[in-house]
Structures are given as structure tokens and as C-alpha cells.
């Protein structure tokens, strides 16, 4: 009934659902009232709300070609991709290296676990650090997440030595993630929808560690999509430890030809103009 009140007061020409349970009452009620609706699915495998709303939505925007198989009829499905910030697309490597004070002659590994960090990834890196410490051709940007930072840094400080040859910097959070992406030759991270959209927009080779408790294992489906096209390697959360992290990174980070192929594959999957395409679709549908 609250959704009904909102729709009657606002009188929208189009209602757009972006997934999740919060979108269901508004989009479904709009359909009952005869208001045109659209939904956008960010992941490779759609969530329950979007699968149900797909039956009544006038148009369905998807981020992966294979997602079309979960909706019908296909004529109302449009591949737009998942919007990314303009800064992600516009950032340049030289500016990024300068901003972080990094060495242009070294390969750069970016590690993060999403906006809140990932304890499993952070712990695996602590185990892996002894393997990385003598890498004089590597530099690492590590974003731990604010909740993990203090405990992680305390442990990390006990591991580091004055004769370590790897360049390592640790951050609780970065507002300049666009620059971190631009600096990276390889990224190790989770496989959420926004992360996948951003790394493919930049064409960054990846080691993906899907969050194991995501709904319907959608993060693993996102990750496998990139892996199937040669843009990423997948390490499952339960298989991640210090040795497996180091092995996954070391196999890729200095393989020039392998990184080139992964970069090309990643770029081919990216849709850097997704925001514009989705906005145009919404504007077009609202005028019908």
C-alpha cells in the first residue's frame, strides 16, 4: 500500500527496478496500475526479484549476453552492461603511478575485497607475504577495508623487514579507486557486479575470488563468465590461502603475452558506455 501511495503521488511515466527485494513492490505495483516498467540486471545470474519482475517489465536491460536466457520474450531484452563511473574510464597509468608514488618499471598488483574489504583475502595475503617479500620487480596496492585495517596493519607490521624488496602499500579505503585501477597490471578481488563492470571497462586481467555466500552463487557465475573468455582466473574462497594466492599471481603477473591476451579479452567484455546506454533506454521508454 505504501508503494501505491508513492506511485499515485509521484505519477511517474516509467518505473525502473535495479534488482533486490526493495524494487519488487514498486515495480510490481506500477505494472498493476498500468505504468510502464523496466528492470536492470547487474549480474550474470538474475536474482529472484528480477526473475519475477521480468514477466511484467516492458523492457529488461542486462549486463551479460548469457543473462538473456533467464528472461523472455527475448525481444524485450537489451544488453546495456553495468554502469561505471566516468573516472574509472578516464584515468591514466602515468598519473596513477605518480599519485601513488610507484615505480613505472615494476608490475603493479592491486588487491581488494570490495568496499568493506574481505577478511579471507587479507588473511591469505598475510600468509603469502613471505613469498612476495623478495620480488624486486613487483609493487602492491592493497585495500583492506576500513573494518579490517587496524588489525591487519598490526599483524603486517610484524611481518615486514627493512630488507624487503617488494614495494607494498596498504590502505583502509580509497576514494581514488579509479587511479588504483589505472596503475594495475593485475587485480585480485571479489567478483561483484560493479567490480566486474569496472575491471572490464579498463581491461584489467584478474584473479577473482568470488564471495561464497552471495545469493544463488551469483559472484561465482560472474567470475566464471570472465574466466570462460580468458579474462580472469578463478580461485574459490575455500581454496584461497597464502600459497594459492602467490601461485595464481606469480603465474600471471610476469607473463607478458598472457597478460596481453587477458587484457584484450577483458576489454572485449567491457561496456564502458553502459551508463549512457542505460540512460538512453530509460529516456526512450519514458516517452512511449
Tell me the layout of helices and strands.
Layout: H1 2-10, E1 15-17, H2 23-32, E2 37-41, H3 48-53, E3 59-62, E4 77-79, H4 86-90, H5 93-100, E5 107-112, H6 119-132, E6 138-143, H7 146-159, E7 167-171, H8 177-183, E8 186-189, H9 193-202, E9 206-208, H10 218-228, E10 232-234, H11 242-253, H12 256-269, H13 274-286
CATH class of the largest domain: Alpha Beta
Kindly report how far apart the N and C termini lie: 27 Å
Largest sheet: 6 strands, parallel
Q: What does the average pLDDT come to? A: 95
| Parts with pLDDT < 50 across at least 5 consecutive residues | none
Spell the H/E element sequence. Answer: HEHEHEEHHEHEHEHEHEHEHHH
Q: Architecture of the largest domain, CATH level 2?
A: 3-Layer(aba) Sandwich
CATH topology of the largest domain: Rossmann fold
